[in-house]
Amino acid sequence: MSKANEELMERIVSLCKRRGFVFPSSEIYGGFAAVYDYGPYGVELENNIKDFWWREMVQRREDIVGLDSAIFMHPKIWEASGHVAGFSDPLVECKKCHARLRLDHLLEEVGVQADEKMTEEEINKLFLENAEKIACPSCKAKNFTSGKKFNLLVKSNLGNITEDPKEQPVYLRGETCQGIYVNFKNVLDSVRVKIPFGIAQIGKAFRNEITARQFIFRTREFEQMEMQYFTSPEDEMKEYEKLRKRRWEYYLKLGLSEKNLKWHKHEKLVFYAKEAYDIEYKFPFGFKEVEGVHARGNYDLSQHTKFSGKDLSYTDPQTGKKFIPHVIEASVGVARTVLAVLTEAYTEEKIGSETRVVMKFPKILAPIKIAVFPLLKNKPELVKKAHEVFGSLKENYMCEFDDNGNIGKRYRRQDEIGTPYCVTIDFDTLNDGSVTVRDRDTMKQERIKIADLEAFFQSNF
Ligand code: ATP
Questions:
Q1: 105 neighbors 135 (Cβ within 8 angstroms)
Q2: Which helix (H) or strand (E) holds 228?
């Protein structure tokens, strides 16, 4: 990362803490690594992103339905999915400073792509072939142990009151899509869907990430927004191309600029996959994955048919043809989207000799839509009127009331949390019923009648 990008990242992280977007977990207890809490503005931003995704992926589709499956599932599911045996990251230890590092990340730094499904042996071989190029990011030494794999599933002792070591462990789900696969038949039998159709879900997932890094980019507890689309074998690749196109357009609609997005094609595919692409965003630390769009063949439903003994095949009502549906998926992390949106929005502008920091969120994503101020907090008639305006606007918009400090300071604070409009109630308001509306991006102020505010915001949001 360049010095400038490192500083940019620091500024974003510091704004997140200072302005109530993201807090380190358990801070008063000294912190808890690789877990973060979302503050009052962070949770609004997250919710707006999740609503946006849900509208695009479920509400506006005829062929996709929602689901909310539980975090705990039958332990066999994780055997069927391959996670118990294979869901692990190979690690090495630096012999000099004892930092534990992910082999695939070290390889990535020198431009070598390791596939997540490679065996320990294969990845060690790749590492040895590139060893002279790879240095420890902490101490710069080039002396490592050989790689070992660690399982990423997070174990729980739910229901395991006997603590019998032979009992199969229960896991916190490592991905949300397994809940979709195991409910495929339930959805099919209870809702009027026919193939091709999709099931979408938003929910928490847990992974024992070894090197959690880059703020909220990689954490041990995170949220996924996943859509699994079930197709016939013949239509899989046609639907896959459609999904890829839609997912690209989704990010443009979300307000990310095209120059900051790119496709990354997986060169080494898992044996069952037909094709796999990731959508990457240009974070301050470089282009990194935000979403995976993968064509997975019929692996998922075949595995669950095998492990559960239940037939998960589908019979086409028109042709009578029976087959195990193929799956194409679009899987994205909420936090990675939050970080991409924060990066895209973060703006520093020179205003005279001062620097204005403003989060230029698209209006639809802004945590607070309108801030309402009485010009002075010790004038009861202004405060009363401001509360009245606030009370009517908050019926339809997430609003904030602020009577602290001078107006300039209040504007700066709202700029930093990305509020598109500020409404100020002053002495003229009491005479003519109009208020000042200030625009975040242009900083222009205009007088608008209180009676016209609703219409003004309706046309501007
Ligand atoms: P990576 O290669 O970065 O570890 P992945 O390929 O393992 O990610 P998937 O299993 O495909 O990720 O999960 C789908 C999405 O879930 C990712 O694109 C990412 O947005 C999100 N995600 C995965 N792991 C994490 C994590 N530890 N923290 C935050 N988000 C994550």
A1: no
A2: strand 221-231
Report whether pLDDT(113) > 90: no
**What residues form DSSP beta bridges with 69?**
none
CA of 176 to the centre of ligand 1 (A): 11
C-beta atoms surrounding 29 within 10 Å: 7
Per-residue pLDDT for 384 more than 90?
yes
**C-alpha 116: how far from its chain's center?**
20
Q: Checking DSSP bridges between strand 322-323 and strand 314-315, what pairing results, if any?
A: antiparallel
Among 218, 263, 334, which residue has the most ligand 1 atoms within 8 Å of its CB, making it the best to mutate? Answer: 218
Give the pLDDT of residue 164.
Answer: 66
Ligand 1 contact via 290 beta carbon (within 6 Å): yes
Please report, rounded to a whole number, the percentage of residues in the chain having pLDDT higher than 90. 78
Going from N- to C-terminal start, the domains of the chain cover 3-75+155-342, 88-151, 368-460
- What is the rounded CA–CA span in Å between residue 33 and residue 231? 41
Name the superfamily (CATH) of residues 3-75+155-342: Bira Bifunctional Protein; Domain 2 (3.30.930.10)
* Residue whose CA lies nearest to ligand 1 atom number 22: 333
Is the CB of residue 87 below 6 angstroms from any atom belonging to ligand 1?
no
Q: What is the mean pLDDT of the chain?
A: 93
Does the structural domain 88-151 have CATH classification 3.30.40.230?
yes
Of 224, 254, 339, the one to substitute when testing ligand 1's pocket (max ligand atoms within 8 A of C-beta) is: 224
**Any residues with CB less than 8 A from the CB of 445 and at least 6 apart, and which?**
436, 437, 438, 439
Going by C-alpha positions, the residue among 371, 283, 370 that lies closest to residue 335 is 283
pLDDT single digits (tens) 299-355: 999 999 999 999 999 999 999 999 999 999 999 999 999 999 999 999 999 999 999
Say which residue the tokens 């199969």 belong to: 168
Of 342, 456, 299, 452, which is closest to residue 48 (Cα–Cα)? 342
pLDDT tens-digit profile of 221-260?
Answer: 999 999 999 999 999 999 999 999 999 999 999 999 999 9
How many whole angstroms separate alpha carbon 30 and alpha carbon 141?
30
Residue 116: pLDDT over 70: no
Amino acid identity at 13? V
